[in-house]
Structures are given as C-alpha cells and as structure tokens.
Amino acid sequence: MIAMEKTYDITGMKCSGCVKKVTEAFTGVSGVTKVAVSLADGNAVVAGDFDEQNLKTSLKGTHYNIKL
C-alpha cells in the first residue's frame, strides 16, 4: 500500500447523521489518517496508507455505497 489522499463519491447520504456514520466507518479502517466527508458534495476525502477495498467493506450493512 502507498500513502495517498483520494476523493471518493458516496451515495446514500441524506443528513449530518449519515456523514457521521460514514466518517466513523472510514476512520475505523486500518491505515486511514484523515477523513473529510461532505454531504453537499456527496463525497469523502480519505488520506493514509490503506486498502481501498477495506473502505468498501467498512460500509457493508449500511445503505451507503462508495465508488472505487
């Protein structure tokens, strides 16, 4: 894995509670050092040394989806 900062489109977010849940899910992924989720833009900026598939897995069981 290589340290990176990348923006991902997130679908299914409708409120600030959704932003909090996505932020918490991504923050819990090993290697993630920074998460900034925007409801207005429908995306998340994630930084660190992480596996992108783990971001997707972290949202399993929710109604949010990430476009890798």
Automatic annotation (TrEMBL):
Residues 4-67 form the HMA domain. It comes from the Bacteria. GO terms for molecular function: metal ion binding. Pfam families: HMA (PF00403). InterPro entries: HMA_dom (IPR006121), HMA_dom_sf (IPR036163). This is HMA domain-containing protein.
